[in-house]
Amino acid sequence: MSGQIILSMAVAIKDPYESLHFEPDMENGGRGSVQVGNYKWDREKSNDNIEKHGLSFYAARLVYDDTYHWAYPDTKHGQGRRHVVGNVLENPNDGLLLVVDVLVENDIRNIISAWVDNSSRVWDGYLEHKRSAQSKNSHFNRMVNFLYEGMKRICG
Question: Domain boundaries in the chain?
Answer without folding.
Answer: 2-155
